[in-house]
Amino acid sequence: QVQLVESGGGLVQAGGSLRLSCVGSGSIFSINRMGWYRQAPGKQRELVAIINNGGSTNYADSVKGRFTISRDNAKSTLQMNSLKPEDTAIYYCYAVGYFGSSWGQGTQVTVSS
Fold this sequence. Notes:
This protein has strands at residues 2-7, 10-13, 18-26, 31-39, 46-52, 57-59, 67-72, 75-80, 89-97, 100-103, 107-112. The protein is mainly beta. The termini are far apart.
């Protein structure tokens, strides 16, 4: 099993930046993919960005050009620039591998207009 812990959320004004970090522990050797999802109040959880073992990435259209995902072994970072009020949500770290899948507890990101 893999345990994930996020950090770096907070309150920022529109146009600002935040950096989220996620650190995995446990069976980290078996991680194939890490990523970030978010869930805004009253909405379904949605994909933000994913990074695979080979370094390939996928982004939601709404964050392309503003967010950048990176990964170093069992640590994933989401750099968020040019933040908008609609980016306000709880952000969850996600990992998948031979153990199945794991989620972090979430970190709140609030963007004020």
